[in-house]
Design goal:
It comes from Roseovarius marisflavi. By secondary structure, the protein is α/β, with parallel strands linked by helices. It folds into two domains: about 5-50 and about 215-290 and about 375-430, FAD/NAD(P)-binding domain, CATH 3.50.50; about 95-205 and about 305-360. The chain has 14 helices and 20 strands. The protein has helices at about 20-30, 75-85, 110-115, 125-140, 150-155, 160-175, 180-185, 190-195, 215-230, 270-275, 285-290, 335-340, 375-390, 405-430, and strands at about 10-15, 35-40, 50-55, 60, 65-70, 85-90, 95-100, 105, 210, 235, 240-245, 250-255, 260, 265, 295-300, 320, 335, 350-355, 365-375, 395. The strands form five sheets. The protein has a seven-stranded mixed sheet. Strands 10-2-1-14-20 form a five-stranded parallel sheet, with helices on one face. Helix 4 packs across helix 6 (about 160-175) and helix 11 crosses helix 13 (about 375-390).
Length: about 425
C-alpha cells in the first residue's frame, strides 16, 4: 500500500526536549520511524515534576503541572486513558489577598467573597462585583477583535480600578503565572476565548478538575515505559550543544559528542532555547522564535501557613497575594496543594511562586525556577508564522508556547508537529 511506512522508508528523527511536547511527539512517531529523544535533565517530564515531601516523607506533591479537565484537555485525557493513568477529583478556586491583606476575598462562595464583612458596605468593592457580571456578560462581544489588548478592552468596557487591579489582573496573572502589569498587554481575544472555553464567564456549568493520583510522575513513568517499548532511544542527561542543517537532513551534536545525522529534527523546547541551539538559524526563524518572551518563576514547595491569606475563609486552591508594597516585576501566587491533590489536612503543603515574604527555612521541601511564556500580540503573531513555516529544512518546532502555555497545549503542539511530519512523509512516499 502506498501510505505504509516500509522498513526502508523509516526516517531517523531527533526530538529535542522530553517535556510533554517532546514525549508526545516521540510517542506518535515511534511506531513508524526511528526516534531519538534528547533531554538535558537526568529525568523526563519537563514541568511534570513531582516531589516526595511531607512531615512523614512519603507525600507526592506536584510543583509544575497539577490539574486537568476532560473538556479542555482532550489530548491529555486521551493519553491518560491509553496509559491507564489513575486520576482523582481536584478542587479549583481562587482567592486574593492584596495590600498586605488589607483587602481579601475568595470566589468559592458568598462567604468567601465577603470574608471581610465591611466589603459588603464598600462601594468600590461592590462596583467590582458589578463589573465582574458586566465583564462576563459582554466579553464575547469583543472576541473577534484580534488587535485589542486587555488594557484597551477594559477602557472600552469602562470597568473600574478595583475590577482591574483586584480581580481580572490577579486572576489572569495566576492563570498564566505572569506579572499583572504584563497582562494589560495580553491580546484581549486570546484571554476572552480562554475564559469562555474554561467556563470562566459563567456562573454554572463549571468543569470538574482532576489531578493524577500519586503525582504527575505516575503518567511520566508510564509514558517513559511505553516509549522504551516502542524502541525510542532515550538520552536523558544529554544536553544538545548545537543543531545545523545539511542537504536532506540535519546534524546534532550533544555536549562532549560528535555530530550525528538525522533526517528530521523536532524542537520541543522553549522557543528561545531552540533559537540558541540552531547554529544556522534563518532570519525568519530568528524573528519568529525570538518574538516570544519568557518569565522566570521561582517556585518553593513548603509548609509555612503564614504565606496564605490572613483570613482562613479566603484560602483557595490558587491564592494571589500582594505585600503592602506591590511589585510589578513578578506575581506572588500560592497553590494550596491539600486542596488540589489528595494530601491529608494534617500535612500542609503549599507551592509558592516569587514571594518576597520570608518562608521559614525549616518548612521548605524544594525550590526550583521554571520559565513560562509571556503572551503579548507579538508572541501570538509569531505562533501563526511558525505554523506556516514548520518543517522547513527538515526542522519542526512545538511546545506549550505555541498555544496558551498549558500542559494540554504542549501535548497538542507536539502531536500537531508529529502529524504534519507524518503527512509530509506519506505524500513524499506516494510521489515516488
Amino acid at each position: 500500500m502506498p501510505f505504509e511506512t516500509s522498513a526502508a522508508a523509516r526516517k531517523t528523527i531527533a526530538v529535542i526536549g522530553a517535556g510533554i511536547s517532546g514525549m508526545g511527539a516521540a510517542h506518535r512517531l515511534a511506531d513508524t520511524h526511528h526516534v531519538t529523544l534528547f533531554e538535558a535533565e537526568p529525568r523526563l517530564g519537563g514541568h511534570a515534576r513531582t516531589i516526595i515531601a511531607g512531615k512523614r516523607g512519603d507525600q507526592p506533591v506536584d510543583t509544575g503541572f497539577i490539574v486537568f479537565n476532560y473538556a479542555n484537555y482532550p489530548s491529555l485525557a486521551d493519553l491518560f486513558a491509553r496509559l491507564d493513568v489513575p486520576v482523582v477529583k481536584s478542587n479549583m478556586s481562587f482567592g486574593a489577598s492584596v495590600r498586605g491583606g488589607a483587602l481579601e476575598y475568595g470566589l468559592a462562595s458568598a462567604g468567601a467573597f465577603f470574608a471581610q464583612r465591611r466589603n459588603a458596605l464598600n462601594p468600590r468593592f461592590l462596583r467590582m462585583m458589578r463589573d465582574i457580571f458586566r465583564f462576563n456578560a459582554r466579553a464575547l462581544d469583543h472576541v473577534n477583535d484580534r488587535n485589542l489588548t486587555v488594557g484597551q478592552f477594559l477602557d472600552k468596557l469602562g470597568t473600574g480600578d478595583y475590577f482591574r487591579d483586584y480581580y481580572l489582573l490577579p486572576l489572569s496573572g495566576a492563570i498564566w503565572s505572569t506579572p499583572t502589569k504584563q497582562i494589560l498587554d495580553f491580546p484581549a481575544h486570546a484571554m476572552i476565548q480562554f475564559f469562555e472555553n474554561h467556563a470562566l464567564l459563567n456562573y454554572s456549568g463549571q468543569h470538574q478538575w482532576y489531578t493524577v493520583k500519586g503525582g504527575s510522575i505516575a503518567y511520566v513513568t508510564r509514558l517513559e515505559h511505553t516509549l522504551r517499548s516502542q524502541g525510542v532511544s532515550l538520552r536523558s542527561g544529554t544536553p544538545v550543544a548545537g543543531v545545523r542543517r545539511i542537504d536532506g537532513g540535519v546534524e546534532i551534536r550533544a555536549q562532549g559528542g560528535e555530530w550525528e545525522r538525522f533526517d528530521e529534527v523536532i524542537f520541543a523546547t522553549h522557543s528561545d532555547d531552540a533559537l540558541r541551539l540552531l547554529s544556522d538559524a534563518t532570519e525568519t526563524e530568528s524573528a519568529n522564535l525570538g518574538a516570544v518572551a519568557y518569565q522566570p518563576n521561582d517556585i518553593v514547595l513548603h509548609a509555612d501557613t503564614s504565606i496564605m491569606p490572613k483570613r482562613r475563609a479566603v484560602w483557595s486552591s490558587w491564592n494571589y497575594t500582594e505585600t503592602a508594597t506591590k511589585r510589578d516585576g513578578q506575581i506572588d501566587l500560592t497553590y494550596w496543594m491539600n486542596c488540589l491533590q489528595p494530601i491529608p489536612e494534617d500535612d500542609p503543603h503549599f507551592v509558592t511562586l516569587n514571594s518576597t515574604r520570608e518562608i521559614r527555612q525549616e518548612l521548605i521541601y524544594d525550590q526550583v525556577t521554571l520559565r513560562h511564556p509571556v503572551y503579548d500580540l507579538a508572541a501570538l503573531n509569531a505562533q501563526d508564522r511558525v505554523r506556516m513555516t514548520n518543517g522547513a529544512q527538515n526542522t519542526w518546532f512545538c511546545g506549550a508556547w505555541m498555544r496558551h502555555g498549558f500542559h494540554e497545549d504542549g501535548l497538542a503542539s507536539g502531536l500537531e508537529a508529529a502529524e504534519a511530519l507524518l503527512d509530509r512523509s506519506a505524500l513524499s512516499m506516494a510521489a515516488e
